Amino acid sequence: MNLHTLSIANVNKFARIPFRALHTTQSKLQKITEQNTPKLRQEFVEKLKSGPDFGDFIANKHSEIIVGENLDGKSRLPSWLKTQIPKGKNMVSIKKSLRKLDLTTVCEEARCPNLNECWGGGEHNTATATIMIMGDTCTRGCRFCSVKTSKTPNPLDQNEPEKVAQALAAWGLDYVVITSVDRDDLPDYGANHFTKTVNEVKLRNPKLMIECLTPDFLGNPELISMVANSGLDVFAHNLETVEPLQRYVRDYRANYKQSLKVLTIAKNSNPRLITKTSLMLGVGENDEQIHQTLVDLRKHNVDVVTFGQYARPTKKHMKVFEYVHPSKFDYWHKVATDMGFLYVASGPLVRSSYKAAEFFIKNVLEKRKISNPA
Ligand code: SF4
């Protein structure tokens, strides 16, 4: 599974300082005091002074989401990677219902800057959201992803498929993305739970368009085929990066060929599906490698590709190699479109489920209408 939507950095960095970091800070302070080095102490005090105070933390004053980090720790981030915290009425009602049903969305977990536009419908009035199922703890550990990891996550909530269906029926969305953590601890890697969730959602709301952003189910054809035939409209599985960087970026159990196989099995077992994948740029890839990836995706009949900028969630995750300029995203948009993809989304803030419905309703379905007029 890809949650590279989660790569967007935290807004409230103070609320997320891990205990270990606090402990380290205390130890540093103690050391400084013990050694009685006035210069170091002065520097430390200045650092603290220049940061936010406790009042800022309580008031949650930060209005700007900083995506990623400075490459050299000093220079300012490129202007195209700064955005505002989303606000809006629609968000409040969706949030209330989420809390009531104890559900999680990637949009909120990642503090996604596109949240208001997606949940509120944006300029084309197509409201979308991304629901995360099977818990908040993954059995894998990709180097770009901030989801918690454990070999033994909590058991599945057997009522979750109904809860998700209930919430989605109430929200009146047009398009939903259902994604999950990887559950290598389960005999079927969660494929039955995924399938049941889609069945329940379609049962209550047959018109809702469903995209599933799935794990790789370790390449098991039966399981992939079961999910592909669960009633979903779009089968998404992310390659994340080019082939030579797979081992560096993703968990050792994931790989390029396996992910291409997942997309191929899904398409072959249900040819009416739209297949989709996403790539992060800025992790060290070069143009030739990206081009080769697009060639491979076309060979495997993948319909939709998206490109977004990788942003480091915390200092423990892999570094950003490069902030790719928006003009380069435009370039890849053109290259991929010319290669025949049904739809391409490419931009620094594009996430795998960014304005997903707009992709399909406005572009893919319109194209289909043109080629198959009633
Ligand atoms: S760590 Fe888990 S949730 Fe995160 S990208 Fe990897 S497989 Fe997906």
Automatic annotation (TrEMBL):
Enzyme nomenclature, EC number: 2.8.1.8
Domain named Radical SAM core: residues: 123-342
GO cellular component terms, A-Z: mitochondrion
Domain of life: Eukaryota
GO molecular function terms listed in the Swiss-Prot or TrEMBL record: 4 iron, 4 sulfur cluster binding; lipoate synthase activity; metal ion binding
Annotated positions binding [4Fe-4S] cluster 1: 107, 112, 118, 353
Enzyme class: transferase
Subcellular localization(s) per the UniProt record: Mitochondrion
Entry similarity comment: Belongs to the radical SAM superfamily. Lipoyl synthase family.
Protein name (record): Lipoyl synthase, mitochondrial
Species for this entry: Furculomyces boomerangus
